[in-house]
Amino acid sequence: MGKNNTNTSSEALLLKTLRNEKTSRPPFWFMRQAGRVLPSYMAIRETHSLWQMMSTPELAAEITLLPVHDLDVDAAILFSDILMVPYAMGMGLEFTETGPVFRSPLIKYEIPSQHLKPEISKLQFVFDTISNIQKLKSPEIPLIGFCGAPLTVLCYMLEGLSRNSEFPSAIKFIYSNKQETKKLIDAVTEVTIEYVKRQIEQGIDVFQLFESHAGLLPNSLYFELFYPSIKRIAQEVKDKNIPFIYFPKGIGLGIKNITPELCDFVSIDWQIPLLEARNMVHQEVGLQGNLDPRVLYVSPKDMECYLTPYLEFGKKNYNWIFNLGHGFIHDTPFENARFMAQWVKNAQWNR
User: Fold this and answer.
1) Closest CA to 148 of 218, 56, 55, 247
2) In angstroms, rounded to a whole number, what is the distance separating the alpha carbons of residues 70 and 33?
3) Alpha helix ranges (H) inside the chain
4) Of 95, 101, 30, 121, nearest to 68 (Cα)?
5) Which of 146, 173, 188 is nearest to 54 (CA)?
6) Which tens digit of pLDDT belongs to each residue from 93-122?
7) What totals of helices (H) and strands (E) does the chain contain, helices first?
């Protein structure tokens, strides 16, 4: 493993669950937990841009650990963005009020693969952030590293922005230019692997790959074009003896193709019932998720109606991490997020 062996206790609840050891309750953390849900984050956001927060290692480390203090989660996840890889490939990433933007989308070039200039050193601030987190965090709290998966990353690189979550121009390009798409996938994968390796060297304990837009393509085309890349990234992580979590949002019935050779755990989105996911996914692959983040809009009393059914699942399934089926929504009431966190910790799991 990387440096995490000396910085994180092997008894950490998340790590024990990832090793398929029995625990008294499921571990929990939340996607997008270090962000707009937290009043402490919003106080920092008043005087700093998103890019300033991510690119300043001391500040990014502090923000990474905010949900540990504010929500008492069982793991921290690196405060960063899924688009660090294209930034390292010379894409000129900017964060605007409407989302991330690439001023020179690849789709405008006749041969997009010729306009990439990979330089992993551009991401040194991310590696420095991980080093800072290691100095600050408790040994009981594992650190999750991550990046965006190739389809998701490529959609942004081709389209240039994210105002239309269907990425129509990018998908049209993928269908119309298969060979060039494969070249782009290979280029993204090479940089991704280097990025993952460097995160592991700096001491992350777990790695999650975010395929936020797996549902944009039919399963057959997704598995044909992108699955080989996913396998290469996964193998790099597993070769370093780091647990690998794969989150293919919107993949639907495609989860039945996910095996232990690919990942240790697969994160389930809110569109698939958890019990059905358990029946479809290989039994040796653990599950993470899949609470609909919109449940957090209701009152704590009503929220319990949505949370209670998870007790029966958690009682029988030790290889499960409590999480959302996607990230926190920006206007989620902090009090509701805190209530849910305390509910998971204090519920009777009857294990």
Assistant:
1) 247
2) 10
3) 4-7, 13-18, 39-45, 50-55, 57-70, 84-88, 124-136, 150-159, 168-176, 178-202, 219-225, 227-239, 274-280, 300-307, 309-316, 334-346
4) 30
5) 146
6) 888 777 788 888 999 999 999 999 999 999
7) 16, 9
Strand-pair partners of 138: none
Q: Is the pLDDT of residue 1 over 50?
A: no
Q: Name all domains of the chain by residue range, CATH numbers in brackets.
A: 4-92+121-152+178-346 (3.20.20.210)
User: Residue 288 to residues 8, 14, 157, 258, 327: CA-CA distances in angstroms?
Assistant: 21, 11, 28, 14, 13
Q: What count of other Cβ atoms lies within 10 Å of the Cβ of residue 241?
A: 11
The model's pTM is 0.96
The whole-angstrom distance between residue 163's C-alpha and the CA centroid of its chain comes to 20
What is the radius of gyration, based on Cα positions, of the chain? 19
Q: Read off the pLDDT of residues 268-298 as tens digits, 9 standing for 90 and up.
A: 999 999 999 999 999 999 999 999 999 999 9
DSSP 8-state secondary structure symbol assigned to residue 272: S
Using CB atoms within 10 Å of the CB of residue 113, give its burial: 0 to 12 exposed, 13 to 18 middle, 19+ buried. Answer: middle
Whose CA is closest to 133, among 181, 77, 85? 77
Tokens linked to 37: 């849900």
In 160-273, where does DSSP find H-type helix? Answer: 168-176, 178-202, 219-225, 227-239
Alpha carbon 84 to its chain centroid, in Å, reads 13
Active site residues: 32, 36, 45, 81, 156
The partner residues of 246 in beta bridges, in order of sequence, read: 209, 266
Q: Which residues of 19-46 are buried (b: 16+ CB within 10 A; e: fewer)?
A: eeeeeebbbbbbbbbbbebbeebeeebe
For 211-229, write each residue's pLDDT tens digit.
Answer: 999 999 999 999 999 999 9
CA distance 214 to 235: 20
Do 173 and 110 form a contact (C-beta atoms < 8 A)? no
